[in-house]
Amino acid sequence: MRPKKSLGQNFLNDKNILTKIIDCGKINKNDIILEIGPGTGNLTEKIVEKKPKHIIVVEKDKELSKILKDKFGNQIEIINKDILNCFNDIEFKTPIKVFGNLPYNISTKILTSYIKVQNLEKKYNKFIFIFQKEVANRILAKENSKDYGRLSILASWKLDKYKVIDLDPKIFYPKPKVWSSLIVFSPKLEFENLKKAQNLENITNIFFNQRRKMIKKPMKQLFDNFEEIAQKLEINLNLRPQNISLKQYIEICKSYENLI
């Protein structure tokens, strides 16, 4: 099977890394497992060996879906759709564990889509994802660093996260030009509630579109009384977007939501 560049396909073949990914999930017999973009089924095979209660794979490529059907039969449920269009097709009473060697071209969309799911902590148990290393650095970045931005804030709002290992390009086929990283996410049971997750995404976009500028301009764009809001939230308008903490962005978002 020749990988399709248009679908961002890079198949993972290294058995040691596949085992490490499975170990991160701590799969047991009561688990519901979802795998995104299983490709030719190398990781799927390892998941099947653990004998969880139910396995779902979402594979957009029709040819690969047929290969998976021939290989695994009724051991797995195959959804032949784009993952971005089938979040509502996958609902279980038991929280789901999600694995994914994510297509590079939509990896951030997949992550942010999960973050915006209502009652995330009740629907999902864990996410074990592979990203480009550059993207992983942005997800894991702390405030006051060059990689800190929209992804860092959105991910930290609802998820605990850590990097397991960086992955050499040579373990993939075809070999990508960049390194990748394996990250494990766990939904937080407690986090600041917002009226709409999209509001935090929009606000961070406004701030980080001009990350080298002081935050006075985006604050002015959001609020007529921006100086009063800044004073109330104890935010220095001379700071830059990367200097503002997650907690402060949440408070900015809440103040914005009170206006709409």
Give a description of the structure.
The protein has 260 residues and is an alpha/beta fold. The chain folds into 2 domains: 183 residues, Vaccinia Virus protein VP39 (Rossmann fold); 61 residues, Helicase, Ruva Protein, domain 3. Helices cover 38% and strands 19% of the residues. Strands 4-3-2-5-6-9-7 form a 7-stranded mixed sheet. β3, α3 and β4 form a beta-alpha-beta unit. α4 crosses α7. The protein is elongated and about 65 Å long. The termini are far apart. The N terminus is likely disordered.
How are the SSEs ordered, and which strands pair?
Elements: E1 11-12, H1 15-25, E2 32-36, H2 42-49, E3 54-58, H3 62-72, E4 77-79, E5 96-101, H4 107-115, H5 120-123, E6 124-132, H6 133-140, H7 150-158, E7 159-167, E8 172-173, E9 180-187, H8 197-208, H9 216-222, H10 226-232, H11 246-257
Parallel strand pairs: 2-3, 2-5, 3-4, 5-6
Antiparallel strand pairs: 1-8, 6-9, 7-9
Helix pairs in contact: 1-2, 4-7, 8-11
